[in-house]
Amino acid sequence: xxxxxxxxxxxxxxxxxxxxxxxxxxxxxxxxxxxxxxxxxxxxxxxxxxxxxxxxxxxxxxxxxxxxxxxxxxxxxxxxxxxxxxxxxxxxxxxxxxxxxxxxxxxxxxxxxxxxxxxxxxxxxxxxxxxxxxxxxxxxxxxxxxxxxxxxxxxxxxxxxxx
Length: 163
Known about the structure:
Elements: H1 2-35, E1 43-44, E2 47-48, E3 57-59, E4 72-73, H2 78-90, E5 95-100, E6 104-110, E7 117-123, E8 130-137, H3 146-160
Antiparallel strand pairs: 1-2, 3-8, 4-8, 5-6, 6-7, 7-8
């Protein structure tokens, strides 16, 4: 019985070691491989990129029903709305502003446990008092609604600040 328990323990430890090793290897490989998928970021001809077919993206411009989300309307001037949005983004956990211009903001948002990266974009067209948004996971087929919830929470925070 003791020998059987020792054998089981050794096999279990090998399995755990294998899983840890596999996780480390995949975390080194996946970020480089998935960055190419996010190369369609930014504004092109006044529009944010469309969402892929997967269920892990929302966008407020030219979207089908599955991926559509309303833009955020504001009643301040554009610069004030942009500065307020930057303040809100500054307090969102695991979020890093990586690019900003006078009409565009690109943010990286990481999931708490697995550190999956989502690209979050905001576009301020000069001819409308709205902020167009796009939030997309870099990997996976589904995000369980995380991108939509994030954008709606940002919308609520901005509404509370009376933009």
